């Protein structure tokens, strides 16, 4: 069956500052927690770091040109907080200039800029003052957000406060996989709370400006948990995993509460929730104009006596990407239906979706990434089907425009539709880029 996208449906691509910009010591930028994490032995694959990355800071014009060539409608990127405020209270116009130039370039080419304020690269000065563990981080973030709104609002109409608070909190402060690499559950929950609170604070300030036609929201990574069997234990384990990664974030944002069952679970490990003050949840659940959903995969969960929270991930029979993530477009479908039923009717953007594969340049000088094309096509089909059912998904941002620094995996995982040769910084359009170009033009998936 032919599946058609509406005329105003946005086909975009996503990136993030630390993953592509490089130029980490230029024009007054101060280090972020990721600069430090990368230099800590054993944290990042091959001791890779973002010092140069895709050198996008210097090659942004060429990159925008490539996007224009593909016909991309919108570009979601993030701002490096430590370029804008390299020190507490010290605004750096030079750092802002880069984003102004990038945004100009995009607008000139008719590509909508979509700005994420926080994609994990917290300035090191913030970290040294306690980072997101310090409730004052909410104030610091607010100051940064307001400055960015003031400077860029004329030319940016879609705003995202945070990218994946789950990763910036649980993954970074409990599982220790991301910067700053702590392993403390109480810390992780405090960080999550302050990040959510800073979202509420930033949206509140945004509303005060009364910007015309500008919209703001938050991006959550929503990886659904499915029970590995029909046993009571596995069902309970999957529900707990769902609470851990999904409901702990969706509930405060849309229901002004933390899930009671998870509070019970966490009480065993932490002494209370004194970091949640009266009125916080009201602030966190401020109205959003849209919800950003990052979806890559689902998780199959079973009960595990050995794990602290009594659940663990296992693999099912689905094919997997280079990240070892199962390819399950159906669960994107189920997820959106669930969001509509249980949480919200506001517009949704898929702010990330994509796949890493072991891409190689072949003798013909090309990259034939057919598996990626299949992945993208199968997920986009679900998006059309969902919209036909009234899901109101307004756009799709493919992760990623180009291969980049994939956090703890360094440069070993390639997600781009553009291949990057990290030695020469040459960019090569993969077959998936050509496929995307064709799709954007036709707006039809057969
Ligand atoms: C998401 C991140 C993004 C990228 C993709 C693969 O969790 O938001 O930066 O690393 O995963």
Care to give the gist of this entry?
The chain has 15 helices and 15 strands. By secondary structure, it is an alpha/beta fold. The chain has an 8-stranded parallel β-barrel with strand order 2-3-4-5-6-8-11-12, surrounded by 5 helices.
What key phrases describe this protein's structure?
single chain, 446 residues, 3-stranded mixed β-sheet, 15 helices, binds beta-D-fucopyranose, TIM Barrel, 8-stranded parallel barrel, alpha/beta, globular, 15 strands
Characterize the structure shown.
The chain has 446 residues and is an alpha/beta fold. It is built from 15 helices and 15 strands. It has helices at 17-20, 33-38, 56-70, 81-84, 93-108, 124-128, 137-152, 165-173, 185-209, 232-255, 260-267, 280-284, 329-342, 370-388, 431-442, and strands at residues 3-4, 10-14, 74-78, 112-118, 158-163, 215-221, 225-227, 290-294, 299-303, 311-314, 348-353, 393-399, 418-421, 426-429, 444-445. An eight-stranded parallel β-barrel has the order 2-3-4-5-6-8-11-12, surrounded by five helices. The termini are close together. Beta-D-fucopyranose (FCB) binds at residues 16, 19, 163-164, 167, 221, 294, 352, 399, 406-407, 415.
- What ions, cofactors and ligands are bound? beta-D-fucopyranose
What is the straight-line distance between the termini?
6 Å
**Tally of separate helices:** 15
Order of helices and strands: EEHHHEHHEHHEHHEEHHHEEEHEHEEEHE
- Please list the strands of the largest sheet in the order they lie side by side: 2-3-4-5-6-8-11-12
Beta content comes to 15-25%
- Classify the oligomer: single chain
Question: Which CATH C-level class is it?
Answer: Alpha Beta
Backbone shape? globular
Residue runs with pLDDT of under 50 for 5 or more positions? none
Largest sheet: 8 strands, parallel, barrel
Based on DSSP secondary structure assignment, what is the total number of beta strands? 15
Could you say how many structural domains there are in total?
A: 1
CATH superfamily: Glycosidases
Query: Which topology does CATH recognise?
Result: TIM Barrel
Whole-number radius of gyration? 21 Å
Estimate percent helicity: 40-55%
Output the structural class.
Answer: alpha/beta
CATH level-two architecture: Alpha-Beta Barrel
């Amino acid at each position: 069956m032919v599946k058609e996208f509406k005329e105003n449906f946005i086909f975009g691509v996503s990136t993030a500052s630390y993953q592509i910009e490089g130029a980490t010591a230029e024009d007054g930028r101060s280090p972020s927690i990721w600069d430090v994490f990368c230099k800590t032995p054993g944290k990042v694959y091959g001791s890779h770091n973002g010092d140069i990355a895709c050198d996008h800071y210097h090659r942004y014009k060429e990159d925008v040109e490539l996007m224009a060539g593909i016909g991309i409608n919108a570009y979601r990127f993030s701002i490096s907080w430590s370029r804008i405020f390299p020190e507490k209270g010290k605004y750096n116009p030079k750092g802002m200039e880069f984003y102004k130039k990038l945004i100009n370039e995009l607008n000139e080419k008719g590509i909508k800029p979509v700005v994420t304020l926080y994609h994990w690269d917290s300035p090191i000065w913030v970290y040294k003052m306690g980072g997101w563990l310090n409730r004052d981080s909410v104030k610091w973030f607010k100051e940064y957000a307001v400055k960015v709104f003031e400077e860029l609002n004329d030319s940016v109409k879609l705003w995202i406060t945070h990218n994946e608070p789950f990763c910036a909190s649980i993954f970074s402060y409990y599982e220790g996989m991301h910067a700053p690499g702590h392993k403390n559950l109480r810390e992780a929950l405090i960080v999550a709370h302050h990040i959510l609170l800073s979202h509420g604070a930033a949206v509140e300030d945004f509303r005060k400006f009364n910007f015309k036609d500008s919209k703001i929201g938050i991006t959550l990574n929503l990886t659904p948990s499915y029970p590995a069997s029909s046993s009571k234990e596995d069902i309970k384990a999957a529900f707990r995993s769902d609470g851990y990664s999904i409901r702990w974030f969706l509930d405060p944002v849309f229901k002004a509460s933390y899930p009671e069952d998870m509070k019970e679970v966490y009480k065993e490990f932490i002494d209370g929730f004194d970091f949640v003050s009266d009125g916080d949840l009201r602030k966190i659940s401020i109205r959003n104009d849209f919800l950003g959903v990052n979806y890559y995969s689902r998780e199959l969960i079973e009960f595990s006596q050995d794990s602290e929270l009594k659940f663990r991930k296992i693999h099912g029979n689905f094919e997997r990407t280079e990240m070892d993530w199962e390819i399950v477009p159906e669960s994107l479908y189920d997820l959106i239906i669930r969001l509509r039923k249980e949480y919200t009717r506001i517009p949704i953007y898929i702010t990330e979706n994509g796949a890493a594969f072991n891409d190689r340049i072949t003798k013909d000088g090309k990259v034939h990434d057919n598996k990626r094309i299949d992945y993208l096509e199968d997920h986009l089909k679900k998006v059309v089907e969902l919209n036909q059912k009234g899901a109101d998904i307004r756009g799709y941002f493919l992760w990623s425009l180009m291969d980049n620094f994939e956090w703890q995996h360094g440069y070993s995982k390639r997600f781009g539709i553009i291949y990057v040769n990290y030695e020469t910084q040459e960019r090569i359009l993969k077959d998936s880029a050509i496929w995307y170009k064709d799709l954007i033009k036709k707006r039809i998936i057969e």
